[in-house]
Amino acid sequence: MNLQEFIYEADNFEYSAEAMDILKTTMECTLIEAHLESMEFCEDNTELVSMMESTYFGEAKNKDKDKKEGLMASLNSKRKSLWDKIVAILSRIKNAIVSFFKSIWEKIKKVGAWLKNLPSTRIKKFDEADANMVIKAYKNAIKKSKLPVAENYRDKVIRAIGSRTVVSGAHPIWQRLTKLVLEDPVLISVTAGSKLSHACSPKDLTDITKDMAGKLVKMKISKVISSNPESLFNSLNTNLTKKLEKNRAKGFYLVMDEDFDKVAGMVDRLLTDAMDAIKSIKLTPTRGAKGLNKGLDMARDEFNNSDSAAKNLAGMALSGLSVNKEGVGQAMEFLKNVQKVVAQTITISAMYVSYQNTFTSSMDAFLQNKVDNMPTDDDDQNE
What we know:
Elements: H1 3-11, H2 17-44, H3 46-49, H4 55-58, H5 65-116, H6 128-145, H7 151-163, H8 173-182, E1 186-188, H9 202-222, H10 230-250, E2 252-254, H11 258-280, H12 289-294, H13 296-303, H14 309-317, H15 320-372, H16 377-382
Antiparallel strand pairs: 1-2
């Protein structure tokens, strides 16, 4: 899979056959857990079950040990299959991030080298017409790259170039303005519902990965994980959502610094740790017995006085199902969102590099024209 294919598939993961397969597996696990829970309830409450007419509960009356063990084996197999699928997705994410950011850092370094050579270029003046040329180059870089620069930030840069005044520095004014465009953090604006609503900075991407890896490694160390991972994915979703909402409300900055260089190595290490943690965790089936037992005594008291007692008991016996459904939803939501984050962060990072390269190319043409038309020392003497 090449990078463009990854971006398309990751950005549309929820509609894929892979997503449907994961959803199918998680729902199958939910039903098996509900069945096991019902069997255990019947084993522990034979006097109540005998008064119930439900054929569903009747399947467990014989305490079929072989059937129960078979269901347990099937559940463990499906849970392992589910986590294997998650590992495969994380592996795909890791490969895409590492490949992209390693290659893009080389392009960013070229822009850095271009900036270092600026002091060797000399021009005699930088007038209003020149400033307008730089503004044109700046606007063209934004338009061509499609980088969603925040409007207030863009206008501030244009005003600085137009007035030909920026913060003091050792370089000539036009060099400082060029550095303003290329070196200063660029404020990015994204909105909910847009094609880049899940985009973030390389640093944010590293933080999101660190959060996920940290929680999985912690589970590995404690050797405790539920086969129903709603608490893990609920926490990851909460943190991810907060990050995205903050970016949409205030924007985020892209800057030509070591974050672009570090993200590949950091994500490689973090996701490798996360996948190793998942592979080493021993899964144990969860049951909703806690919720069931909580109301069991009350149900016993009400049983003889209520026509709906059997329905109440059946509802409690399946109380774990609602928790499992939440876990299924949280897992799918996180897998969907994190892949969108990766795909759109790669996309916006590529736009940022295109913005830089387009601007430097325009400035090269501008500077070449200025240098070619500069008067020589002989011309100055003749004047």
